[in-house]
Amino acid sequence: MLSYQHAYHAGNLADVHKHALLAVALARMVEKPKPLTYLETHAGRGLYDLGAPEARRTGEAAAGITRALAEGWLPEGHPLRTALEAVRAAHGPDAYPGSPLVAGALLRPGDRAHLAELHPAEFAALQAVAGFADLRHEDGFAMANALLPPTPRRGLLLIDPSYEVKADYDRLPGWIGRMAGKWNVGVIALWYPILSDARHRPMAQALAAAHPEALRSEVRFPPARPGHGMVGSGMVVLNPPFGLEVEAARLAAIYAGL
């Protein structure tokens, strides 16, 4: 079983980038009255405690969401701020939503959600907080392959693996191409870390070549501590909702000043 534990990194600068884009994309989509489907291949535990020893040990949340709120990166009415406020009202002031609960705070009663998580402990934690969704204790790629195109057909798929398996970088462009072929109207969003060795670059270039119309948002930031390998966050979005490019540009300007 893979060993990555996001509790040490929840609310970091990469999460702020990823979740701001996800929240704005969903907010734009729910403006239309038609129902939608939200799918996530690697859901994690859904809810994190920024007051827990794991989060305090790394200090990544302090440099991420805590700083973002203090410095006004998420103005009043921003969908991520709306989701965060809803989650903290329900779970306390140190709560931070993973992407399942960001989505859950923005989806409407008529929308559907399908969340996959393979790690037993993470899945058990997800069950405790994501009762709004169809939860799958299985491989997320298999779930998406089985459900696409979903019902309702309109929707968003978030792919957010841990990248502990280095083969993910090689497999994702082809897999996403196949999913886009099955679901040509779907919004397909892939998040990836930007590491100091730039191992993401061939994957990102392959996606750009195959999907030139896709939105590609990349931001850079200082490493969380000396020797830490992650120096940025990236997201590729096929069929991006209208206005998402404005949010990507806004975030790019903020991160450029770090």
TrEMBL record:
The active site is at D160. Keywords: Methyltransferase, RNA-binding, rRNA processing, S-adenosyl-L-methionine, Transferase. It catalyses: adenosine(2030) in 23S rRNA + S-adenosyl-L-methionine = N(6)-methyladenosine(2030) in 23S rRNA + S-adenosyl-L-homocysteine + H(+). The record marks Y4 as: Interaction with substrate rRNA. One of its GO terms (biological process) is rRNA base methylation. S-adenosyl-L-methionine binds at H19, H42, S99, E117, D139, G140, D160. One of its GO terms (cellular component) is cytosol. It is an enzyme of class 2 (transferase). It comes from the Bacteria. Monomer. Belongs to the RlmJ family. This is Ribosomal RNA large subunit methyltransferase J. It comes from Paracoccus sanguinis. The lineage of its organism: Bacteria, Pseudomonadati, Pseudomonadota, Alphaproteobacteria, Rhodobacterales. The gene is rlmJ.
